[in-house]
Specification:
By secondary structure, this protein is of the alpha+beta class. The chain has 3 helices and 8 strands. The protein starts with 25 loop residues before the first helix and ends in an 11-residue tail after the last strand. The structure holds nickel (II) ion (NI). Nickel (II) ion (NI) binds next to α2.
């Protein structure tokens, strides 16, 4: 396992669309392990492959931090959305920047797991937000694109670590 460099605001790769994963080989599995380690090391709750410079449709999410395994999703797709909720959102690619974003309060996501099996994940609240945020990354969409006007804040402390994605 290894930590990978997190691509930051202004890096053009963050605007590119990621490609569908066709084969889940050892290289993809290693990437997923590295993404998980990189995310935890940066105290993030979610990360997408593009944020470590790889344009593949892969996301890793851990909203619990209770030692249970992170959610690792390949080719994720939102198949259902319900409600709406306002979140204070951050992103590992935008250190110390936060803004208010309105997202669905519940989503259902279809994806492949690391074994290539089709799975369905239901998320509410923070998990729904993280799923939407990471899937947006795969399409080159950043939270600053959809934030509520005038809510961008620069917060230079660690209190908001748990909302970084
Ligand atoms: Ni992000």
């Amino acid at each position: 396992m290894a930590l990978r460099e997190i691509r930051l605001e202004g890096d053009e790769i963050l605007r590119k669309k990621s490609k569908t994963v066709e084969v889940i080989d050892d290289k993809i599995k290693e990437l997923i392990r590295d993404m998980d380690e990189t995310m935890h090391s940066a105290n993030g709750v979610g990360i997408s492959a593009v944020q470590v410079g790889i344009l593949k449709r892969i996301i890793v999410i851990d909203v619990n931090y209770d030692g249970s395994p992170s959610l690792k999703l390949i080719n994720p797709e939102i198949i259902k959305k319900k409600g709406s909720e306002e979140f204070q959102e951050g992103c590992l690619s935008f250190p110390n920047k936060f803004a208010k974003v309105i997202r669905p309060s519940e989503v259902v996501v279809k994806a492949l797991n690391e074994e290539g099996k089709s799975i369905t994940v239901k998320g509410k609240g923070l998990l729904a937000e993280a799923l939407c945020h990471e899937i947006d990354h795969l399409n080159g969409i950043l939270f600053i694109d959809i934030m509520e006007q005038g809510t961008l804040e620069y917060i230079d402390n660690d209190q908001n670590d748990s909302s970084k994605k």
